Amino acid sequence: MRQSFAPRPFRKMRTPHFPQSHPSLLLCFLLVLFVSEFRSVQCQELTPPLFNLAAGRRVTATATCGEGVEEPELYCYLVGANKPGNENKDEEEHLLIQGQICDHCDPRREDKYHPAEHAVDGAETWWQSPPLSRGMKYNEVNLTIDLGQLQSVYQYG
User: Fold this and answer.
1) Other residues' Cβ atoms within 10 Å of the Cβ of residue 45
2) Which segments within 3-129 are labelled E, that is strand?
3) DSSP 3-state helix, strand, coil percentages of the chain (rounded to 5)?
4) Cβ burial, residue 126 (10 Å; 0-12/13-18/19+)
5) Three-state secondary structure call for residue 31
6) 84 confidence band (pLDDT: 50, 70, 90)
7) Residues linked to residue 103 through DSSP beta bridges, in sequence order
8) DSSP, res 65
9) Residues 38-49: what's their mean pLDDT?
């Protein structure tokens, strides 16, 4: 007795159903994964110690308030001040002109002299550029610090 073998029909296999994922869901998942990994990393601030590179160096300026003029030179702070009832002088002997605190540069008086060296001396002194009342060429003044090394400086503009 011979049996005939008829091929059996293939059973349709069920494939797992994966819902269509939205790109935003995938992005959210990756973001959560990244944040959770980031939290486990120890972060350290890599800030080098600060120091004054210009301390003790020679400092020059192309112009300084009070230098090259015969009389003490008036300058005003860029910050305003409103002291009602006292339009002439404040308690520190500075002039108060239209809400601006003003003073004079005078190289003959140490307390009124503001040379370029004062920009980096570490004291409560400062360098004062000439006022624009002397001319618009003083709108740009160079302050140069000699670091004692030969440097190549390139300026693009």
Assistant:
1) 4
2) 58-61, 73-80, 95-97, 100-105
3) 20, 15, 65
4) exposed
5) helix
6) very low
7) 75
8) T
9) 70
> pLDDT value at position 89?
44
Report residue 124 as tokens: 């409560």
Core vs surface per residue 58-72: b (16+ CB within 10 A) or e: ebebebbbbbeeeeb
Q: How confident is the model at residue 98 (pLDDT cuts 50, 70, 90)?
A: confident
Under a CB-based contact definition with an 8 Å cutoff, are residues 119 and 127 in contact? yes
pLDDT at 11: 58
Long-range CB contacts for residues 116-125, cutoff 8 Å, separation at least 24? 116/59, 116/60, 116/61, 116/64, 116/143, 117/59, 119/54, 119/59, 119/143, 120/52, 120/54, 120/55, 120/57, 120/59, 120/145, 122/52, 122/55
Q: What band does 64 get if pLDDT is binned at 50, 70 and 90?
A: very high
- CA-closest candidate to residue 82, choices 92, 94, 96, 61: 96
